[in-house]
Specification:
Radius of gyration: 14 Å
Helix content: 25-40%
Oligomer: single chain
Strand content: 25-35%
Number of domains: 1
Order of helices and strands: EEEHEHHE
Number of helices: 3
Distance between the termini: 18 Å
Structural class: alpha+beta
CATH topology: Double Stranded RNA Binding Domain
Length: 105
């Protein structure tokens, strides 16, 4: 399973607003798309980290395809924490899925 989550980013004419359909608590914003993407990775990382620490469920990333959907990758150390209690092959951990999405690292 990959922990690369879809984020919906909407522009209201002044700011970019980000939310993660799989985690209601993960929301952020930015003045530019670049800033919104940076903040999205940060909030995703913090949300997953908090869920791991509190023993909460890590949802399976949903399949989304929309022009406003960006696939966000959390930090490597949070990915490691999520994977350490699960049985994955090296290929599962190393290779990202081949999907047609906007990728933000």
């Amino acid at each position: 399973m990959k922990h690369i989550f879809p984020a919906k980013i909407e522009y209201d004419g002044a700011r970019y607003f980000v939310n993660f359909p799989d985690m209601d608590e993960a929301v952020t914003e930015g003045e530019t798309l670049e800033e919104a993407l940076f903040n999205a990775r940060e909030v995703l990382t913090l949300t997953l980290e908090a869920r791991c620490k509190e023993g909460m469920n890590i949802p399976v990333p949903s399949e989304c395809s929309d022009k406003n959907i960006y696939m966000i990758v959390p930090s490597a150390n949070v990915q490691s924490a999520v994977y350490q209690d699960k049985e994955y092959s090296i290929a599962d951990i190393v290779y990202a899925p081949e999907q047609k999405y906007n990728w933000a690292y």
